[in-house]
Amino acid sequence: MPAFFRAVLHSYSMLFFSQHRGLAALLLLATWAHPWAGAAGLAAAALAVGGARLGGFSREYTDLGAYSFNALLVGLALPLYFAPSAGLAALVGLGAGLALLLSVALGGWLGGRGLPFLSLPFILVMWLLLLASRQLPLVPAEAGGVYWLNDAYALGGPHLANAARWATEADWPPPAATYLRALSAVLLQDSPWAGLLVALGLLWHSRIAFSLSVLAFGGAWGLALLAGAGVGGVGGVGAYDLGANYLMAAVAVGGVFALPSLGSYGWSLLSLPVTAVLLAAAEALLRPLGPAGLPALSLPYCLTSLLFLYVLLLREKPGNWLVLTPLQRYSPEANLYAHLAGLGRRAAALAPVPLALPFLGEWRCTQGYADGGPTHQGPWGQALDFAITDKEGQTYEGSGRTLSDFYCYDKPVLAPADGTVEEVVQHLPDNAIGEVDTRQNWGNTVVLRHAPGLYSQLSHLRAYSVRVRPGQAVRRGEVLASCGSSGRSPEPHLHFQLQATPAIGSPTLAYPLAHFLASDGSLKGSESIGNKPDCLCQSALTLHTATVPRTGELVRPPQPQAQLSQALHLPPGQRLAVQLASAPEAPPQVWEVFTDAYNARYLRCHYTGAVAYFEQDEAVFQCTAYYGSRQAWLYWFYLAAYRVPLCYLPQPRAVPLPLSVVRRPWLGWLQDVVAPFFQFVQPVFTLKWLGPDAGPAARQLQLGSRVVVSYFGQKQVVQEAELTIADGALTSLTARRGAQQLALTFAAANS
């Protein structure tokens, strides 16, 4: 499908924060319950997409439909206020243009504060046009909604008019009819049949969003009964307010901006009385503006959603009961499953400041976070101590009576991240073994500033070994000093902590390391190298991401495999030509690397439009999201290279996958319904190295991967694949899904 038409279609699905084309198609069809509105909405969306592309605005937001869904709403609303005429057509064009400009402007202003603009452009444009129309005799404001039945009679006689009337006035059970009319009202319609299409599309797109809409409808109904207002009747809550305000606010705060959970469902219910108050206040404030006043439209929904989201953004201690969506994947299920698969922790490893271990080689964590150790207590509990041990677990060789007997003494201490030197102390002498200096508790110390409110402190350094000075900029991995035994240190070791202020000895701050290799510290499989401390064989090591070492663990920085790192280093602008191995003469598909507004990288297939988001640093290549057909070649690659450690690990641990990989619809839908409360489906990705040599000098590598879904004691193999790398480049992918097989080759594509 051409990109222009995809963007127009996405204008419809974005009304429900979605990129689901099935939902978009059903919404498009539902808008034609009122033909003039359907035509005007489609024209307005197309004009906004065209204007955004011609105006050079963000291509990403344009393709998502983010710049055009408000224009769509304007087009759908105008025929309800104005009779069909040339003046109405002019208003549709003008309204689409204004909605586009306001979407871009409000997107820039609110987006910088972490807030969405929702349907605020639609509201502002409608108010402007309704006020201006009173001064424009060519477009008098009238109840245009009555005209389409007359037009239907003129086009098809009484049969077509009766069919059109039946579509809007057929008898339905009252609760069902009101719920469906409320859903249709999101599209400015008033038809249970249109609402049925919306309900089916919403259910198809997201079982969680559908359940939230039903929950909100029941809650709003109960709230109206308690207030003595009723629902749907005269003097009660109207279908439009139910759908465009109550239901939309509940879905937004409970399933879109917050990860679906028991807490988010409660948050969704809490939004209902807030919406009711804002609706009553908005109607009272807008009623005096002009002879007929101005409609509140979806203003209460916008205010409720922005209020609830902004309050969550201001929390100092977010907790786990209500978690904000870290990266929008345009589906409550996709957002939740990415979080359950640990992709939120992966994001923590990359921002705002990725920290590395402050040393080379393998050290043991001798005291961890608040583990009851002798010094890491109370406000200073979130700190780490490290020393080097041998195969017997000893920290020294020989008698251990002198500083030089200790393995870590005089070893280099490195900057854990880029920063600026804030404090330096290096004049204090090292203690004799077994003695401590309680007056100068921290001993020789370097404090680095990495970001506002984020400092690192490295203490107990060797006297006069510091190589940096206050105010000096340092890079991650730069040597700062040498490990010593100054301060409260009975034997040489390194103290490492994060803190919010620059003062030496400030209270500690819990903060994860980006990556490190660790073992449980057992001595099995270890071997001694000369008189140096033993190094555990690599098969005992596990790559850890966005966490901190535990007491007793042996840890070391990861050492990337050069060929693998080069092959999976995909900078923006890189293009890959991908071909079927069996058809080398056929035109290739071109995959190109782009970045979005948040600097997240993604591969986009120009042929299918499929998109695979990924992150890559010195330790891991990680796919984070996929949008597009599951038959696209890019999806095969997404599953084959979902998470690839860039250092050699003979047996990388299995990692969870988002539940979106489940191929059996009934199983996926059943899990979706209960996903906010518990998970019984477990998709897992495993990786192994194939071939005899994967050392640092290896020029050809082969990785085998397997995706398995477990449920109710059964296991389903989704995909098995082999990825080949030669001379620092991707060369081929062979994959199997049941009876399906795919063999691809990769090459650099011409620009």
UniProtKB/TrEMBL annotation:
SUPFAM superfamilies listed in its UniProt record: Duplicated hybrid motif
Segments traversing the membrane: 64-82, 89-109, 115-132, 208-231, 243-262, 292-313
Pfam families to which the protein is assigned, alphabetical: Peptidase_M23, UT
Position of the signal peptide: none
Keywords per UniProt: Cell membrane, Membrane, Transmembrane, Transmembrane helix
Subcellular location field: Cell membrane
GO CC terms, sorted: plasma membrane
Domain M23ase beta-sheet core: 410-499
GO molecular function (one): metalloendopeptidase activity
Membrane topology listed for this record: Multi-pass membrane protein
Record has Cell membrane as a keyword: yes
PANTHER family attached to this UniProt entry: MUREIN HYDROLASE ACTIVATOR ENVC (PTHR21666:SF270), PEPTIDASE-RELATED (PTHR21666)
Record-stated family: Belongs to the urea transporter family.
Protein name per the record: Peptidoglycan DD-metalloendopeptidase family protein
Organism: Hymenobacter ginkgonis
